[in-house]
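2024-03-11 09:14:02 INFO worker-7 job=invfold-0412 stage=load source=structure_tokens
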């Protein structure tokens, strides 16, 4: 059974956007989510508990307090939430989370923005970004001018489970898919997610100077998790992939 334990009742939110950052291809969602939490100095708003999540405790640099691996952060001024995960999430856990989050999203009028990378060979061109939507999310993507995908594909892993739950319930949700390096952490793809996707959708302005300047440091810091994601089953790794018109 999944549940949300709210820690910061004093944070006021009104129709907030939520950015999901499960680990996946290029760790693009994870890097983008972590950057938002750090850049805005977001409040640790709540913890997400689920029987199917790994039973681990997480500690942070220069902090003695232990935390669960999946947490919510909030910024009341910007009406922004971030769902942050420090571990790979299996589909069973994602299904429990989807059931738990659905009611909470409805109660708090949350618009989720789900993030995924699509494996692409590295080039000198900026990574392309594509927008997907469910229910009202289709209009949200169109209104901010995010391109539709250029080929048929699917989103798998925990993010795919959450998007599937939104489709089944016809609940408003947005999916962002960015071209990303399948082998290494990709801060550049995360930058594109933030500037061309999250900023206009959530109506926020995010400095990414630190993300760009520290790209190599971020790659090194995330390298171990990236290796774990490559070794994990495909079901645990959030990613988009083309499936072709004919199968």
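2024-03-11 09:14:09 INFO worker-7 stage=emit residues=247
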């Amino acid at each position: 059974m999944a549940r949300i334990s709210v820690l910061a009742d004093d944070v006021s939110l009104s129709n907030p956007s939520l950015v999901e950052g499960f680990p996946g291809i290029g760790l693009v969602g994870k890097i983008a989510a972590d950057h938002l939490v750090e850049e805005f100095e977001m409040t640790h708003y709540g913890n997400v508990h689920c029987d199917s999540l790994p039973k681990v405790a997480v500690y942070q640099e220069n902090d003695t307090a232990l935390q669960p691996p999946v947490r919510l952060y909030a910024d009341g001024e910007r009406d922004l939430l971030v769902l942050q995960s420090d571990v790979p999430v299996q589909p069973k856990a994602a299904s429990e989370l989807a059931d738990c989050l659905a009611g909470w999203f409805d109660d708090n009028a949350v618009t989720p923005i789900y993030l995924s990378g699509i494996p692409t060979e590295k080039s000198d061109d900026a990574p392309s970004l594509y927008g997907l939507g469910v229910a009202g999310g289709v209009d949200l993507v169109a209104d901010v001018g995010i391109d539709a995908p250029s080929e048929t594909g699917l989103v798998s892993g925990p993010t795919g489970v959450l998007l599937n739950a939104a489709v089944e319930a016809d609940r408003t949700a947005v999916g962002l898919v960015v071209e990303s390096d399948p082998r290494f952490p990709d801060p550049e793809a995360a930058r594109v997610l933030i500037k061309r996707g999250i900023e206009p959708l959530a109506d926020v302005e995010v400095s990414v100077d630190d993300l760009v300047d520290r790209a190599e440091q971020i790659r090194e810091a995330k390298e171990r998790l990236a290796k774990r994601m490559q070794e994990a089953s495909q079901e645990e790794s959030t990613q988009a992939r083309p499936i072709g018109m004919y199968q």
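2024-03-11 09:14:09 INFO worker-7 stage=report msg="Helices lie at 28-39, 91-108, 137-143, 157-169, 187-202, 209-213, 215-231."
2024-03-11 09:14:10 INFO worker-7 job finished
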